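Problem: given the chain below (116 residues), write out its structure.
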Amino acid sequence: QVQLVESGGGLVKSGGSLRLSCAASGFTLNMYAVKWFRQAPGKEREGVACIKATDTTTTYADSVKDRFTISRDSAKNTVYLEMNNLQPEDTAAYYCNAALGALSNWGQGTQVTVSS
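Solution.
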């Protein structure tokens, strides 16, 4: 069964850190480009970070650059999103997406709430 499962969300104070995990089962995550998205209530879904499959190049939205880091652990078939210096505006549901050509898999999301 092809599945992506996010975890690691929670409630944190402003300036705090969290590490989100995106664990894959049923397929090899290394072959896929993986993106983290977030969606806050009443707002459109926003892409925040991406790691390519081929050369592991990473890109970030300006709003999270220098605070968030996306990385892979091939042995665990998992992609992480390390989030530092979290701010209230980072509050959202965070989703990971794994894409390879026309194939696209989404996780169920994990909630991140940052209190001021």
